[in-house]
Amino acid sequence: MSTEEEISKQIADLGEKIKEAKSEKKPKEEWDPLLKDMLALKDKFKEVTGKEYGASTQEKKPKQPAQQEASAKNKEKRAAKAAAKAKKEEEKAAKRAERERREREKAEKLAGVGQDNFGDAKMVQSHEVTDKKWVEVSNLKPTLAGQKVLVRGYLQTSRGVGKGVFVLLRSTLYTVQGVAFQNDTVSQGMVKYIASLPVESVVDMEGIVTVPENPVDSATQKMVEIQITSFTCVTKAKQALPFLMEDACRPDDTKESDVGAYDENEEIKREDGLVRVGDKNRLDNRWLDLRTPANQSIMRIESMVGCLFRECLLSKGFVEFHAPKLIAGSSEGGADVFKLDYFGQPACLAMSPQLHKQMAAACSGFERVFTTGPVFRAENSNTRRHMCEFTGFDMEMAIHEHYDEVMDVFSDLFIHIFDGINERCKAELERVREQHPFEDLKYLRPTLKITFAEGCALLKEAGIEQNEYEDLNTENEKKLGELVKQKYDTDFFFMDKYPLSVRPFYTMPCPENPKLSNSFDFFIRGQEILSGAQRIHEPDFIEERAKAWDIDLSTIEEYVNSFRNGALPHGGGGIGLERVVMLFLGLPNIRKASWFPRDPKRLAP
């Protein structure tokens, strides 16, 4: 058996041979067997000696005290170095955390995190009553400078400028400008929130009233603006607007014709090239169209007309009554009624409260009555001055001797209405005039009165043909209005003694000329706004006139019978509310004076 020395020598020899072969760059195939033999000898060496070939056989010398001392010092140095490094890393981490905290706080401050002075408000569900006090936009004046106010309204415009935002808030027909720039209480997030809100959202704006150096031309409250401190959204607009309020409020650049056929789809271009919101778009979205200051004002003036109408007539001893809108037959013997089935009986919507107001005034002993409410005309008239449903203001009164008594009351009534509008609706008139310029209505005291024959004579003098026993057409009415204005300097007059053939069956004929009638019309700016007359109060005479109109007497039997127990001589008239407002304000289309118009082509919204 080979000894450790012999095996070691053999391994060394083979190593030299392999080294020599490699140095001579011989192929591996030549020295690879030598390598395998050497590896086998190394395994044998381990088998014989119990250790790996080449392992050190020298015993480890114990460390000397000096060496141990040096090793301890190195260990201390390494520990100190590690501690210093850890401290440095700890300081770096602390600085990094502090920097991140400052950046986070800055970002949160800019975003308004934790602030409660902007954002979406909770839904108003009548859950609580707070001590908040809202101020009407109309009451914002320079006298409030320095005071904090809270206002609510529609967000008409919102415009971001650098680190700030300008808003225009609208309530009814008044607007005010609000301003917010970044400061200790107004964050960047608040500015961004305000600037990003959809227009026409309902908002609460709180801030300090200030007086700007220059008037705010875009607002009705020109001499104040609000420095915003709080801004919350009460109700957010959920869908895109069909038109911009800015476009809907734009002043007219041309005067639209108020006569001729009307088509709501007609596109009228503005001469200045700016957007014009068409009638169809406005009427399809009437709830939005009514938000404009001009439309708000028109409807408030219309409301005032109703107030003044009642006020005047109540002061003259009239009683308000309410006439039925469902009747048998037709109220005036015409064919243009909306027919319906009334539990198997033929019926219609009332064209006017005519028959019932006569019953109330002349037959029921009330003597003086008035009523207001919708009236219906199934006329397929697509014009700018006709509607299928409008608001009728009707009056009927007993007379003693002459129907002039009725015309005198109407004259007083209209003068009271016109004076009342001018005195009580100054702000509304200005808002209308800003968008729809018009000339103030001229009227006389007492009201100018001419006969139908005199009106025809004026037309003939101007070279216009007009038969004295035929009704005026729209063009001749307009022309007559111009001629009366030139001659008498008034936009308002009335004309009586109309041809009997153009008046309803219950109209009293003229005693001097059987071809004429005791009837009259009132005009504003050359258009009729009231039709009235003395009524027939003798039942036999009523039947005679009804037959002349081919009216089935069975359909007016109750009406005629109401006169068989004694009836007061009487007269009255009916006013079209929307037409009065339209003409007083010089509007070109009656739809502008109707909340939700109904014409032959429109039944919604």
How would you sum up this structure, described in words?
The structure is a single chain. With 605 residues, the chain is of the alpha+beta class. Helix content is 37%, strand content 19%. It has 16 helices and 17 strands. It has helices at residues 4-23, 28-49, 65-111, 188-196, 245-248, 279-284, 286-289, 293-315, 354-363, 404-424, 426-435, 452-461, 474-488, 539-548, 557-561, 577-584, and strands at residues 118-120, 148-161, 164-171, 174-181, 202-210, 225-235, 319-320, 326-327, 339-342, 345-349, 368-376, 389-398, 448-451, 492-496, 519-524, 527-534, 570-576. It has an eight-stranded mixed sheet with strand order 7-11-12-17-16-15-14-13, with helices on both faces. Strands 2-3-4-6-5 form a five-stranded mixed β-barrel. Strands 8-10-9 form a three-stranded antiparallel sheet, with no helix packed on it. Strand 3 (164-171) and strand 4 (174-181) form a beta hairpin. Helix 8 (293-315) crosses helix 11 (426-435). The longest helix is centred in the N-terminal third of the chain and has 47 residues, at 65-111. It is elongated and about 165 Å long.
